[in-house]
Amino acid sequence: MDRVSNPRDAEAALAWELERIGSGAWQGWALKFQRMAFGYAHDSGWQDEADALRWLNQHNLLHEGEPPRGALVWYQSGERTLVACSVGAGQIVGALPYGEVGVAGLTEVSADYVWSDPHFPFAH
């Protein structure tokens, strides 16, 4: 697959996310947070993170192993599927399970994860 083009590139998206560290306004909005970070103002076209993960899996767009900087990281937190962005070196940023935007070690939030390019095929 060719590299995904978004309104904001990965570095701009990461800067947008890091500016929001500590915000509780995104609780329950992990997918929306990532969509907005990459520059999309309107809905992603997916119902939720689990729906997005199924779609990405059906289109063979998921990868295992260490996620590169700027990749979306899809992980399980209890019964929920969540998404964050890889900062690199095993760190993620996003609306984390405890409710605030933050940076965490990926293995601290989940041992069950895959990653994808920041792909929002239905967003605009």
Estimate the strand proportion.
15-25%
Radius of gyration: 13 Å
End-to-end gap:
20 Å
N to C succession of SSEs: HHHEEEEHE
Average pLDDT metric: 92
Q: Report the structural category.
A: alpha+beta
Largest sheet: 5 strands, antiparallel
Number of distinct beta strands:
5
SS field, number of helical segments? 4
Shape annotation? globular
Summarize the amount of helix as a percent range.
Answer: 25-40%
- If strands are numbered along the chain, what order do they take across the biggest sheet? 4-3-2-1-5
Could you list the spans in which at least 5 consecutive residues all have pLDDT below 50?
Answer: none
Description:
This protein has 124 residues and is of the alpha+beta class. It has a domain at 10-40 and 65-116. It is 25% helix and 23% strand. It is built from 4 helices and 5 strands. The chain has a 5-stranded antiparallel beta sheet. A hairpin with a 2-residue loop joins strand 1 (72-77) and strand 2 (80-88). The chain starts with 9 loop residues before the first helix and ends in an 8-residue tail after the last strand. The model has no long low-confidence stretch (mean pLDDT 92).
